[in-house]
Amino acid sequence: MRKVITAREAEELLRKGGSAPPDAILTPSARDILQGHARPGGPTGARSTPAPGTQKEFVVPDYEFKWTPGSDPKTAAEVERFFNSPAIQTLKQRICDIGRRIWEKDYVDGNGGNITVRVGDNLVLCTPTLISKGFMTPDEMCLIDLDGRQLAGTRKRTSEAMTHLGIMKRQPKAKACVHAHPPHATAFAVAAVRPPTCMIPEAEVFLGQIGYAKYQTPGTPENADEVGRIGVDHQAIIMENHGVIVWGKDVEDAYWKMENTDAYCKTVWIASQLGQGLHTFSPDKLKDLIDLRQKLGMPDNRAGLKECELCDNSEFRPGVVCQVSPHGEGAGAAGEKPDPQVEALVQQLTDQIMKQLTAK
Ligand SMILES: [Zn+2]
Fold first, then answer.
1. Tens digit of pLDDT for each residue in 288-316?
2. 219 burial class (0-12, 13-18, 19+ CB within 10 angstroms)?
3. Do 89 and 152 meet the contact criterion of CB atoms below 8 Å apart?
4. Contacts of 109 (CB under 8 A, 6+ apart)
5. Fewest Cβ atoms closer than 10 Å to its Cβ: which of 185, 251, 264, 355?
């Protein structure tokens, strides 16, 4: 008979540095633990150290929730079973953990902010309305479909879920969204300033270019359309006069983008106070970073742009100067590389004018 391994047995196996027999049947939470998807001992437990010599390879845990297309639960009973399954319970706890982190970072105040995780073709877990993100419990989470209809959960879903769904409907890679009002990035949103580029390499790789969505009333279809449209190409979006929404392959990944966005805006803001203007790296160096970002499987709408378009920081006011020399090496806002066709046209016009002048 095949052995069934429970979560507790999986933790015990990990502690002893052993592995499950190849034909063993794993419960979903045991599978999570053995694949590194869940921390042994629950969300607050510490990962145990394997016995010396038993660690075979380094593995980056993958928290992305994967499902078989077409396998969404259909009947009310199926939906309820799915909503209370160990895998979904783990995700609900993870949403609460991220809520705590955005609250502790001062990214949200009052009942602000919201979090979603896509868990099926037409299924999304989301936070309820009117709740502090710092003190949520798994039993307060909601299950909705991609049109925002509530399928499970005792509390009413957040109205801002519609904005998250606007992104998820258009960008299948967006498996989780986090919305918050982090003060530094929100200051850019209130000042209607797009954060500049070509300043910090890690931001270019892990965040990409920060998108900018025009103001629409939060929770309305207009806001969902505007943000959804921008979200196709941007993982972090500043919502004018409102805050920030980010997406990632899982809720931890999305949260990192929130931290990246606010830290980036904070650094740029502080640097702009130093009185020296801001130094940018050159667009050819940015191209290397965009390549790296794409190799990591993250979208970047700048991949096809010319170098001179890559460091267009003209909208950012505190004294950003393009680093490209106006005299040849590369091109930029301060001086485009001469276009031979334009040069020929200018020469032709000059010749005509000179001809007319000398004819008189
Ligand atoms: Zn908001």
1. 888 888 888 877 878 777 766 666 666 66
2. middle
3. no
4. 181
5. 355
Amino acid at the residue 235:
Q
The CA-atom distances, in angstroms, between 45 and each of 48, 58, 256, 282 are 9, 20, 21, 45
Query: Which residues, other chains included, contact 60 with Cβ-Cβ below 8 Å and sequence gap of 6+?
Result: none
Instruction: Verify whether residue 329 is a known catalytic residue.
Output: no
CA–CA distances in Å: residue 43 to residues 9, 117, 260: 17, 17, 23
pTM: 0.73
Which burial class, exposed, middle or buried, applies to 246 when counting CB atoms under 10 A from its CB (0-12, 13-18, 19+)? buried
Which residue has 């949403």 as its token pair? 95
- Please list the residues that pair with 238 across neighbouring strands: 212, 244
Q: What is the 280 CA–ligand 1 centroid distance (Å)?
A: 31
Catalytic member of 9, 11, 104, 160: 160
Question: 7: closest CA among 43, 35, 32, 44?
Answer: 32
Dihedrals φ, ψ of 303, to 5°? -55, -35
- Phi and psi of 63, rounded to 5°? -95, 0
Contact 70, 111 (CB under 8 A): no
Q: Among 263, 262, 291, 96, which residue's Cα sits nearest to residue 186?
A: 262
- Strands across the sheet with 114-120, in order? 150-152, 142-144, 123-126, 114-120, 176-180, 243-248, 236-239, 211-213
> Can you give the pLDDT at residue 348?
67
pLDDT of residue 351: 67
Give residue 111 CA to ligand 1 midpoint distance, Å: 9
Residue 84 CA to ligand 1 center (angstroms) comes to: 28
Beta-strand pair 142-144/123-126? antiparallel
Dihedral sign from CA coordinates of 187, 191, 192, 193 = negative
